[in-house]
């Protein structure tokens, strides 16, 4: 039992490590509105996963498969999970808080491929994973269509800030140090961390940041407004106004998403995705995060940024490289070798934004480190679960398998665990000491540090 601002919560032992699941940190009082404070209760049974946000496909014909088949989907999903070696309030261990991947449309804080247990069991840290609204529930901005919804901007970010506030207030009771919180994420979760680096309301709620394959900048307000227009237009007879969308059953919002996905796929003559995400709204994000970082907003936050060697290679699973390259570079020679197209797309979508983030945070006065993950784990979830054609390639998401691999376990190969130890050591050094054990990135020394099997 641990006393928190949500109530007395009862956990259990997960493979010998104290664990609390589904702990509410806030609540959704109304759809398309900011989160509200949690209503405390006397006692909470925290031995079971809490609800996850509604899950949406990002490619037509595919169903998200990263959450448990028996997971409860709900827009009222503001809950988190905590692991601690020992809930001793005097311990003040480093705290790691994870934001999950999933193109901001699927995934959760309880996704099985992200088993954070070993951070507490092997690395003596308190680790937190969070659920928050995603898809239309967290990212659909209706303020440009109806001023009554002007506070609907960047709701998922507000959920995440609410979770960080809860951690700040309560993590000491779990043996964590509220003044030493490292925020980390991968892919869309990483881009969420990048956005939070530009959010004044998040300042002081986390103290280090690690981004894995995600630093895409927020969109402009005009694009967010146009997306809302397209969403409402795709509703057809289901909804005619933003107020109708606010009252629509959840399955209705999912139906509209699928319609948009079908329309986008038809127009692109190939695989297409619906992109949700933050925008510069003047409040949660008063300006571009890059501008805020250059001005020193997070000058006291050391930053680790990571890319994999072949980021865009993951699109080979959908035979989408040629289509994506044509869409991104319509004026270029389309007969380029396949590998060159992958490299160009990787630079445009992942590597280029990562370098800009590094440069902005460095200019703002914080120490920054850059790494390249150059390894294909045998336990890569993409290849094991669905895409064997990506085996032996360090594509987008491959590093998940090493970052969350138990270094003392039996899963994976000795090589997997050795590379995982490198990846984890960098993150834990950042969390404990505020620095990574290699030379920081600078404009004069921009080469990344390689994570992988030592070269012969």
TrEMBL record:
Q: What EC class is this?
A: hydrolase
Domain of life (superkingdom): Bacteria
Write the Enzyme Commission number(s) for this entry.
Answer: 3.1.1.-
Keyword annotations from UniProtKB, A to Z: Hydrolase
Q: Which SUPFAM superfamilies match?
A: alpha/beta-Hydrolases (SSF53474)
Q: Which PROSITE patterns match?
A: CARBOXYLESTERASE_B_1
Which Pfam families does UniProt cross-reference here? COesterase
Q: Which residues form the Carboxylesterase type B domain?
A: 2-313
UniProt GO MF annotations: hydrolase activity
Q: Which family does it belong to?
A: Belongs to the type-B carboxylesterase/lipase family.
Q: What is this protein called?
A: Carboxylic ester hydrolase
According to its UniProt entry, this protein's organism is Streptomyces spiroverticillatus
């Amino acid at each position: 039992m641990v006393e928190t601002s949500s109530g007395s919560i009862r956990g259990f032992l997960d493979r010998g490590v104290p664990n609390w699941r589904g702990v509410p940190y806030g609540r959704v009082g109304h759809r398309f509105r900011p989160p509200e404070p949690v209503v405390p209760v006397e006692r909470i049974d925290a031995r079971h996963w809490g609800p996850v946000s509604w899950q949406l496909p990002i490619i037509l014909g595919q169903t998200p498969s990263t959450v448990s088949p028996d997971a409860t989907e709900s827009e009222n999903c503001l809950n988190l999970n905590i692991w601690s070696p020992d809930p001793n309030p005097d311990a003040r261990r480093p705290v790691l808080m994870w934001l999950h991947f999933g193109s901001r449309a699927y995934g959760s804080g309880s996704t099985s491929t992200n088993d954070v247990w070993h951070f507490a069991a092997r690395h003596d840290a308190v680790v937190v994973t969070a659920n928050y609204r995603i898809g239309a529930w967290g990212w659909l901005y209706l303020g440009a269509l109806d001023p009554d919804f002007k506070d609907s901007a960047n709701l998922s970010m507000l959920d995440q800030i609410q979770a960080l506030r809860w951690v700040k207030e309560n993590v000491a009771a779990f043996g964590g140090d509220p003044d030493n919180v490292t925020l980390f994420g991968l892919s869309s979760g990483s881009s969420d961390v990048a956005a939070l680096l530009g959010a004044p309301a998040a300042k002081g709620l986390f103290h280090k940041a690690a981004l894995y394959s995600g630093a895409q900048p927020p969109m402009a307000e005009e694009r967010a407004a146009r997306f809302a227009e397209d969403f409402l237009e795709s509703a057809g007879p289901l909804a005619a106004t933003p107020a109708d969308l606010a009252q629509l059953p959840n399955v209705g919002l999912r139906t509209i998403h699928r319609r948009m996905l079908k329309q986008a796929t038809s127009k692109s003559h190939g695989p297409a995705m619906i992109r949700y995400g933050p925008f510069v709204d003047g409040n949660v994000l008063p300006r571009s995060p890059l501008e805020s970082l250059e001005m020193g907003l997070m000058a006291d936050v050391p930053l680790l940024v990571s890319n994999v060697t072949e980021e865009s290679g993951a699109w080979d699973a959908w035979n989408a490289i040629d289509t994506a390259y044509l869409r991104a570079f319509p004026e270029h020679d389309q007969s380029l070798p396949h590998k060159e197209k992958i490299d160009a797309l990787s630079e445009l979508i992942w590597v280029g934004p990562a370098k800009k983030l590094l440069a902005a945070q460095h200019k703002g006065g914080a120490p920054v480190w850059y790494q390249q993950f150059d390894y294909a784990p045998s336990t890569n979830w993409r290849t094991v679960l669905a895409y064997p054609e990506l085996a032996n390639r360090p594509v987008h998401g491959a590093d998940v398998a090493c970052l969350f691999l138990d270094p003392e376990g039996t899963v994976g190969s000795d090589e997997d665990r050795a590379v995982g130890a490198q990846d984890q050591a960098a993150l834990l050094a950042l969390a404990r000491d505020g620095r990574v054990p290699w030379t920081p990135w600078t404009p004069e020394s921009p080469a990344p540090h390689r994570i992988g099997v030592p070269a012969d």
